[in-house]
Amino acid sequence: MRTGFLEPQEGRKGKRGAKEVPYIATRTSWSTPVDDIAPVLIETFVQETRGLMPGDIDVWRLGVKFNAARQQEMMGKLRAVVEEYMRLPADDDGDATSLLIAHHRTQAPTS
Questions:
Q1: If we measure between CA atoms, which residue out of 83, 24, 59, 25 comes closest to residue 75?
Q2: What is the pLDDT, as a whole number, of residue 15?
Q3: Are the beta carbons of 31 and 90 closer than 8 angstroms?
Q4: Could you tell me the residue ranges of all domains in the chain?
Q5: What is the 3-state secondary structure (H, E, C) of the chain?
Q6: Cα–Cα distance between 20 and 78 in angstroms, integer?
Q7: CA-to-CA distance for 93 and 91, rounded, in angstroms?
Q8: CB of 39 within 8 A of CB of 100?
Q9: How, if at all, do strands 12-13 and 6-8 pair?
Q10: pLDDT by residue (tens digit) across 88-100?
Q11: Residue 87: which of 21, 45, 31 has the closest Cα?
C-alpha cells in the first residue's frame, strides 16, 4: 500500500468470522517505468496460467516483418486499445482476468 499499487476496500466478515480487508489494484503500475521488467512479467504469466485448462487461456501469436515505423504504428494501436479498457471501471459482476501482450524481435534460426 505504501507504494500506491493497492488500495484497501471496505472491510467485510470472512468465512470464519474474521475481518477481511480486500484490496484492489490502483493501476499505478501501468504508468510506472521499471527497468528490465519483461522477464518478471513473463514469469508471472507462466505462474498465473500454470494448472489452467487449455480452454481457460486464449492465446494468439503473429509473426510479421515490418519496418520500424509500421512496428511503432502497430504497437501504438495496441496500446491505445489496452489503455481504453484500462480506464474502464471494474464490473461488479465481473470475473478477474489478465492480458499479456509481448512484442519481441524474432531470432534467426540456427542450424
A1: 83
A2: 77
A3: no
A4: 6-86
A5: CCCCCEEECCCEECCCCCEECCEEECCHHHHCCCCCCHHHHHHHHHHHHCCCCHHHCCCCCCCCCCCHHHHHHHHHHHHHHHHHHHCCCCCCCCCCCCCCCCCCCCCCCCC
A6: 37
A7: 5
A8: no
A9: unpaired
A10: 998 989 998 999 9
A11: 31
**What nine digits make up the cell of 87?**
480506464
Cell numbers for 57, please give them: 487461456
Count Cβ atoms below 10 Å from residue 74 Cβ, excluding itself: 14
Q: How far apart are CA 26 and CA 71, in angstroms?
A: 30
CA distances to 25, 59, 86 from 102, in Å? 21, 12, 17
- pLDDT tens, 29-73? 666 677 888 888 899 899 999 999 999 999 999 999 999 999 999
